[in-house]
Amino acid sequence: MFMGEYAHNIDKKGRIIIPAKLREELGDHVIITRGLDGCLAVYTKEQWETIYEQLMKLPSTKKDARMFVRMMTSKAAECEIDAQGRVLIPSPLVKLAELVKECMVIGAANHVEIWSRERWEPVDEEANDAFEDIAESLTEFMI
Question: 65: burial class by Cβ within 10 Å (0-12, 13-18, 19+)?
Fold first, then answer.
C-alpha cells in the first residue's frame, strides 16, 4: 500500500528522489507511464504485469480501447531506482507531466504518482474542498 505526500525537486537530468517509505515497496525497478489527470503513474513490475493483462483484454475492435492501450504502453518505461533513491524519468514523460523543478510524489493506494507542484496544488485543493461530498457519493463502495 502506498500512502503519503512528499515534496521533491526533479533535477535537470530528469532524476527525482523516491521517498524511502515508497521505495521499500516499489523495489529497484519500476514501470513509469502516463497517469490520469496530468501526472505520471509508477508501478511495481508485478503491478504492471497485471495492468498489461487487463489492457490485453480490452476489445481491439473499439477505437477508444486501442487508443488507451497505445497511450499506456507507448509511454511506459522500465526505470531503475539508483543507490541514492533517485529514478531517472525519460524525457518524453518529464515533458508530458510538465515536470520542471518542484514536484510532488504521492502514494495513491496501489501505485505512486509523480506530479508537478503546479498541477498537484489545484487538484489537491479541489479534492479537499469536495472531500465530504465525494465520500458521501462513494459510501456504497466503502466498507
Answer: middle
CA nearest neighbour of 55 among 78, 73, 42, 31: 73
Q: If you classify domain 3-139 with CATH, what class do you get?
A: alpha beta
Q: Give pLDDT tens digits for 8-26.
A: 999 999 999 999 999 999 9
34-43 pLDDT per residue, tens: 999 999 999 9
Is residue 34 within 8 Å of residue 118, measured between CB atoms?
no
Question: Which cell numbers hold the place of 128?
Answer: 479537499
Give yes or no for a contact between 15 and 84, defined as CB atoms under 8 angstroms apart: no
The pTM assigned to this predicted structure is: 0.91
Spans of all domains in the chain: 3-139
Among 96, 119, 91, 83, smallest CA distance to 34 is for 96
- State the sign of the Cα–Cα–Cα–Cα dihedral 57, 61, 65, 70: positive
